[in-house]
């Protein structure tokens, strides 16, 4: 029978091979990689300690510091005693249980969803979990990756397994080549705009189509990262030559004969011709324009040249209600042009868009002008490796010269668990993935955009169509 990529990974990981792979079936699955950070691991470690248990597979578990760290200083007490305690607790727990930790200042430190791929820890066909909702990022490698709660973190620590319910499968096809100036971020925002922020609830999404196949690994990670913002359990992209080229030679990738054997296995990790999906959604890449969220969920999104909608534009009463609330919170008027909307903050970073390619795209715009008066713009690479690469390319100099701040890696203003917090009434063009009320600070207003769009907003002081900037500025 023709099966999907999701079915194949499920079947390869259910411990009892008699487990059904029908939607809704329950199975105990083996977990290949467990990633942890300072926020969701302490209670799980405490639970283990209470029961006198050990971490079953410390060699499959990797830790980093990302949420509670400063982007201005490497000192773990730079953001106060509570953050320091959280970070020190992670260090103590990793030491006690023999888990590799990449702390602040370490060459391999980065946001948890990036650290794994950069090291070659995430490979096609694996199951990957982390106590963090954006774990779906790793699906870009054709691995089944999803966020888990703290009690599940404890379960994985103790047993390296997890009870799971087989989700439904959704195929999202993005047909045709991507137009110039349109990025992976615009693709995923357009998808969420089409299906809604809960449109994939109960599903694992597989992304395919010409526009997806043409993406780099890092762009694929951007797409999969936001699967959760459509409500999906996970996002997947079948591995191909782009995946193998990215992985080859990375620290934890298989080597020699093991590499050849792995690639042979990975090549089979595709949905079979004729595999049945529970839902199929199609988009034409040519129709995608630079996206900007206007509301307070990532599905409330429009093209940069589309006027702000009115609640009455929506047919569903729930969407209408949510639009009324969002317009009020965001202080927007129906019909308003985004190009007339001033921003006073710009954040370029996060696990969605802190990649080297993002730094390059933003720098290509930044070199065309200066940050507008009254705008604070910060650029936060998502890992030490990206920071160093960007500095080797002198992108930091371009940003600083244009009036942006160049910071140390971490989650930063994506959710402000450090001191990168917006004030009441601030309006921010942000490359992160969530625009909920108060996400970047109480009363602050977040508009999700691509890195190039964020940089353009920084220079203009309001939203601007990145396609109006000179394309050859990237040279
Ligand atoms: C702090 C963490 C548990 C949280 C998540 O699960 O996603 C954070 O990363 C976020 O983006 O809101
Ligand atoms: S960058 Fe944002 S979304 Fe990503 S892990 Fe950190 S807080 Fe969560």
Sum up the structure in keywords.
binds iron/sulfur cluster; globular; Aconitase, domain 3; 16% strand; alpha/beta; 475 residues; single chain
What does this structure look like?
The structure is a single chain. This protein is α/β, with parallel strands linked by helices. It has two domains: 277 residues, Aconitase, domain 3; 185 residues, Aconitase, domain 3 (2-Layer Sandwich). The chain contains 16 helices and 18 strands. The strands form five sheets. A five-stranded parallel beta sheet has the order 4-3-2-5-6, sandwiched between helices. α6 links the parallel β8 and β9. The radius of gyration is 21 Å and the shape is globular. The relative contact order is 0.13. Bound molecules: 3-isopropylmalic acid and iron/sulfur cluster. Iron/sulfur cluster binds next to α12.
Layout of helices and strands:
Layout: H1 5-13, E1 26-30, E2 33-36, H2 42-50, E3 61-64, H3 81-97, E4 100-102, H4 112-119, E5 127-130, E6 144-147, H5 150-159, E7 161-165, E8 168-175, H6 184-195, E9 203-208, H7 210-213, H8 217-225, E10 234-236, H9 241-247, H10 256-267, E11 279-284, E12 291-293, E13 301-303, H11 317-330, E14 345-348, H12 350-353, H13 356-366, E15 376-379, H14 384-392, H15 395-402, E16 405-406, E17 427-430, E18 445-448, H16 451-460
Parallel strand pairs: 2-3, 2-5, 3-4, 5-6, 8-9, 8-11, 9-10, 14-15, 14-17, 15-16, 17-18
Antiparallel strand pairs: 1-7, 12-13
Bound molecules: 3-isopropylmalic acid (IPM) and iron/sulfur cluster.
Iron/sulfur cluster binds at residues 66-67, 111, 113, 132, 134, 350-351, 411, 414-415, 432-433.
């Amino acid at each position: 029978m023709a099966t999907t990529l999701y079915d194949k990974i499920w079947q390869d990981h259910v411990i009892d091979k008699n487990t059904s792979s029908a939607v809704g079936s329950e199975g105990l699955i083996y977990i290949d990689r467990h990633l942890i950070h300072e926020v969701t691991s302490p209670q799980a470690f405490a639970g283990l300690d209470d029961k006198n248990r050990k971490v079953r597979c410390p060699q499959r578990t990797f830790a980093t510091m990302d949420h509670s760290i400063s982007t201005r200083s490497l000192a773990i007490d730079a953001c106060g005693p509570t953050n320091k305690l959280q970070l020190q607790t992670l260090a103590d727990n990793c030491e006690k249980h023999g888990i590799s930790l990449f702390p602040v200042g370490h060459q391999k430190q980065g946001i948890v969803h990036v650290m794994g791929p950069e090291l070659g820890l995430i490979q096609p066909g694996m199951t990957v979990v982390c106590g963090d909702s954006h774990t779906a990022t790793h699906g870009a490698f054709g691995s089944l990756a999803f966020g888990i709660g703290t009690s599940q973190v404890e379960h994985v620590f103790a047993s390296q397994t997890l009870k799971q319910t087989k989700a439904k499968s959704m195929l999202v096809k993005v047909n045709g080549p991507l137009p110039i100036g349109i990025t992976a971020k615009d693709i995923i925002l357009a998808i969420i705009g089409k299906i809604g922020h809960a449109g994939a609830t109960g599903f694992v999404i597989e992304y395919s189509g010409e526009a997806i196949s043409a993406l780099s690994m890092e762009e694929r990670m951007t797409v999969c990262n936001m699967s959760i913002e459509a409500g999906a359990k996970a996002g997947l992209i079948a591995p191909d030559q782009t995946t193998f080229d990215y992985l080859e030679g990375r620290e934890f990738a298989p080597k020699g004969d093991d590499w050849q054997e792995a690639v042979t296995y990975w090549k089979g990790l595709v949905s079979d011709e004729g595999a049945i999906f529970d839902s199929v959604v199609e988009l034409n890449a040519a129709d995608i324009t630079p996206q900007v969220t206007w509301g307070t969920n990532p599905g409330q999104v429009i093209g940069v040249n589309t006027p702000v909608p009115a609640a009455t534009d929506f047919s569903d009463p729930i969407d209408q209600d949510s639009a009324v609330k969002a317009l009020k919170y965001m202080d927007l008027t129906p019909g308003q042009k985004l190009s007339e909307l001033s921003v006073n903050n710009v954040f370029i970073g996060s696990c969605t868009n802190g990649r080297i390619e993002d730094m390059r795209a933003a720098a290509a715009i930044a070199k065309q002008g200066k940050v507008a008066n009254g705008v604070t713009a910060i650029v936060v690479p998502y890992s030490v490796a990206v920071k160093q690469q960007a500095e080797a390319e002198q992108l930091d100099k371009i940003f600083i010269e244009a009036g942006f701040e160049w910071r140390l890696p971490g989650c930063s203003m994506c959710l402000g668990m450090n001191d990168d917090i917006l004030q009441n009434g601030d309006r921010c063009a942000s490359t992160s993935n969530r625009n909920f009320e108060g996400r970047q600070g109480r009363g602050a207003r977040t508009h999700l955009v691509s890195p190039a769009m964020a940089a353009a907003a920084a220079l203009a002081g309001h939203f601007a169509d990145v396609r109006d900037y000179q394309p050859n500025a990237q040279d």
